[in-house]
Amino acid sequence: MLDLEEAVMGIIVNAGQSRSLCFEALSCAKAGNFAQAETLLEQANEFAKEAHLVQTKLIEEDEGTGKTQMTLVMVHAQDHLMTSILAKELITELISVYKRLPAEA
């Protein structure tokens, strides 16, 4: 059984790191450094996978029965995860747009 506090912090930390790396990738793409942007997105994806893995374990342990105590910090962790996933999706799309723009002279 997962320690709830540890699991929640695992989601928050990993989701936050994923989101930060995504925005760093966006900055690189904006500057025309697409190779670095892709590297950062790959790193962000690894952190996102880790956060999602913790979330999945919590869901499995709950078994849809409400066994897992729902707290404000748990909701906060879920919010971090969902916003980091959304950021990753949108930033990936924005980077593809930057790639299509002509290079500035």
Which helices and strands, and how do they pair?
Layout: H1 4-30, H2 34-62, H3 72-100
Could you characterize what this model shows?
By secondary structure, the chain is an all-alpha fold. The protein has one domain (4-99): Methane Monooxygenase Hydroxylase, Chain G, domain 1 (Up-down Bundle), CATH 1.20.58. It is 81% helix and 0% strand. The protein has helices at 4-30, 34-62, 72-100. α1 (4-30) runs antiparallel to α2, α1 (4-30) runs parallel beside α3 and α2 (34-62) packs antiparallel against α3 (72-100). The radius of gyration is 16 Å and the shape is elongated.
Concise description?
By secondary structure, the protein is an all-alpha fold.
Quick tags:
mainly alpha, transport, 105 residues, metal-binding, Methane Monooxygenase Hydroxylase, Chain G, domain 1, 81% helix
* CATH class category name: Mainly Alpha
Order of helices and strands, N to C?
A: HHH
Q: Based on DSSP secondary structure assignment, what is the total number of beta strands?
A: 0
The third-level CATH topology is: Methane Monooxygenase Hydroxylase, Chain G, domain 1
Q: Say which CATH homologous superfamily is assigned.
A: Phosphotransferase system, lactose/cellobiose-type IIA subunit
The unreliable regions are: none
| Global shape | elongated
Note the beta-strand portion.
Answer: under 5%
Number of helices: 3
Q: Helical percent range?
A: over 70%
Number of domains: 1
Main β sheet profile = none
What is the CATH architecture annotation? Up-down Bundle
Query: Structural class, from helix and strand content?
Result: mainly alpha
Overall pLDDT confidence: 91
State the distance separating the first and last CA atoms. Answer: 58 Å
Radius of gyration: 16 Å
